[in-house]
Amino acid sequence: MCGIVGYIGSRSVVEILTSGLRKLEYRGYDSSGIAVHSGKEIKVYKAEGKLQNLDDLMQKHVSETASSTLGIGHIRWATHGAPTTVNAHPHTCNCGKLVIVHNGIIENYKELRADLEKRGCKFRSQTDTETVAHLVAYHYGKLQNLTEAVRQATKEIDGAYALCIMHQDNPNVLVATKRNAPLLVGIGEGEYFVASDVPAIIEYTKKAMYLNDNEIVTLTRENMDLIDIDNNKISSKIEMLPWEPVALSKMGFKHFMLKEIHEQPDVIRNVLSGKLFNTDEPINLSEVNLTKADLKKLNRIQIIACGTSLHAAMVGKYLIEEFCGIPVDVEASSEYIYRKTVTDEKTLVIGVSQSGETADTITAIKQSKERGSHILIITNRPDSTMARFADSLIPVNAGIEVSVAATKSYVAQLISFYLLAIYMGEVKESISQVFSKNLKKELVILPQKIEQILAHKEIIQRCAKHYSRYKDFIYIARGINLATSLEGALKLKEISYINATGYAAGELKHGPIAMLDETMPVLAILMKGSVYEKILSNAEESKARNANLIALTDSDDPKLDDLFDFIIRIPEVSEVLSPIISVIPLQLMAYYIAEFLGKDVDQPRNLAKSVTVE
Ligand code: F6R
Fold first, then answer.
1. Looking at 178, 449, 599, 609, which residue is catalytic?
2. What is the largest CA-CA distance in the chain?
3. What is the Å distance from ligand 1's center to 356 Cα?
4. Which three-class secondary structure state does DSSP give residue 227?
5. Which residues line ligand 1 (CB under 6 A)?
6. Which atom of ligand 1 is the closest one to the Cα of 361?
7. Which atom of ligand 1 is least distant from the CA of 310?
């Protein structure tokens, strides 16, 4: 994971680096650092913990850094070595003249380190990155050319990297390169920016170039040179970024997560617009580059994703099988990539990812592309690495999601799956016109139903306050809401650090029921429909074991009041659409519990928004 930034130009570099790092905080936030070139020497500043600590440190050094116009910066999510100041980037070679920031993992760092130690290098950190600093410095010692030294070093490196490097003896040079990690160069007037992601630079320029794997760019204040790892000159592919400067404002909400939960009605309207014009007309999904004949021929679909996106994929499976009768497998990307999978040119592979940068999903997509499958990507970042592998691309249009816990992107992914499944069902004529029309009518009014839930959120707040003293939770559901139970439990775990597990309610009696007593609340997702009565019986079984019972339901049956200790009632919705609204109270429940417990809601410990390492 980690985020990197670099700048060469005429502006004061510290402000550009720290504001860029602030926009990349979603990539990690356990330590940070910057190195600036004064024209004569390089100075390195690092701080453990949140970015604010680096900001505070830089305040103390304003006078010595104000005139610097060349520098690199890094925000870290620790992989090799604890999140300490010494392990924070930038890393330097032994003479301190060469500095480097890195995103990725150097897989052969142990071998490289052993070799470099034999050559006399003294290592100070436990990171894989420091190896690259010494390796480039070693080649620089022989070649006296920074680009050439970087090129030689990258030939020896295995693994994933985005690197930005400068050298004290080159006050007009910044070098950057990448392999299997994102990196782009922003182009200004007499200035260049390097960053892991667009938000870090969009405030300054919309003109940019994405680096491809094994390309090395050399930036001076006047010029940009691009070569590949074999020293072939490459012409740069400059593009205009379709982005506006990112407003990272909480808009009066205490946390980004709460703001993003509240954005969901508008996110749904946004995703539907342009695709669902009129409930009498078929869904318009021109993004799917498969002919009707291709779609009709499909006999197998695999959906690959991680975390919350995996839960959206589970709902997607349910819908596609229900509406189209095509068998669908859902698999965690990290599992898919290390086994022999039956994927071929007759398989449609759907990759789902908020960030489009999740390393495991990218690897899985690459593997299935090599096997000849059509790749359909559902992502919130149409400019991401994953999107570049897409044969069909459905952007989910949720807008920038800042909070680490995914909320609005999940709901946007769900809506995308509903559109896709209805679209495929209409093309295959496997659903009736009446069915699809009714579904579309209901989809359109879902935002209002979510607004009703948000308008009465104090009920969920009360529930959260009461239950925030418990240490373990079980969430139960069946059918299409099984994914909702997993997602609700994941939200609670990740931001409050409370142990919560989602179970298929029918599985409870095959083991988990042994854990039930008065210390273990059971939250039942009890939506009206085919499995309502079954879940009710599972709730009864839990009550008989003294569990404290919470219902999340669209039923107004007064009998529920006798069985459940707490009831969260939500507007009625047809069973097939219920995952879209049943998840909202669970997001709020997790949010309020974490808030009562005083947790860092938007930046929970040990996590990063974009998991760019396998
Ligand atoms: C949970 C969460 C993660 C992500 C997972 C995949 O709130 O955000 O579980 O869903 O890391 O990330 P993407 O969707 O970017 O591939």
1. 609
2. 82
3. 10
4. strand
5. 306-309, 353-355, 358, 361, 405-406, 490, 494, 610-611
6. 16
7. 10
Beta bridge partners of 549: 522
CA dist list (Å): 197 to 6, 32, 148, 164:
12, 16, 26, 14
Is the pLDDT at 1 greater than 80, yes or no?
Answer: no
C-alpha span between 180 and 192 (Å, rounded): 22
Residue nearest to atom 9 of ligand 1 (CA): 307
CB 90 within 8 A of CB 75: no
Distance from Cα 364 to the centre of ligand 1, integer Å? 15
Q: What is the pLDDT of residues 526-554, one digit of tens each?
A: 999 999 999 999 999 999 999 999 999 99
The pLDDT tens digits of the residues spanning 208-222 come to: 999 999 999 999 999
Q: Which atom of ligand 1 is nearest to the CA of 308?
A: 10
Give the pLDDT confidence of 34-65 residue by residue, as tens digits.
Answer: 999 999 999 999 999 999 999 999 999 999 99
- Active-site residue (options: 2, 93, 121, 324): 2
DSSP designation for 196: S
Top mutation candidate among 308, 330, 389, 613 for ligand 1, by most atoms within 8 Å of CB: 308
- What is the identity of the amino acid at 90? P
Distance of CA 312 from the midpoint of ligand 1 (Å): 11
Instruction: Determine the residue type at 470.
Output: Y
State residue 270's pLDDT score. Answer: 93
What is the sign of the dihedral through the CA atoms of 101, 107, 109 and 112?
Answer: negative
The pLDDT-based confidence of 455 (bands split at 50, 70, 90) is very high
Q: Quick one: which of 503, 569, 572, 571 has its CA closest to 539?
A: 503
292 and 427 Cβ atoms separated by less than 8 Å: yes
pLDDT value for 454: 97
Protein residue closest via CA to atom 16 of ligand 1: 353
The residue nearest atom 3 of ligand 1, judged by CA position, is: 307
> How much distance in Å is there from the Cα of 308 to the middle of ligand 1?
5
- Residue 609 annotated in active site: yes
Owner of token pair 């003293």: 469
pTM of the predicted model, to two decimals? 0.88
User: What region does 88 belong to: left with phi over 0, alpha with psi -120 to 50, or beta?
Assistant: beta
User: What is the Cα–Cα distance from 318 to 323, expressed in whole angstroms?
Assistant: 9
SS3 call for 553 = strand
CA dist., res. 600 & res. 598, Å (int): 7
Instruction: Tell me what pLDDT residue 298 has.
Output: 87
Q: What is the mean pLDDT of residues 371-377?
A: 95
The atom number, within ligand 1, closest to the CA of 355 reads 15
**Residue 55 to residue 62: CA distance in whole angstroms:** 11
Torsion of CA 8, 13, 19, 24, to 10 degrees: 40
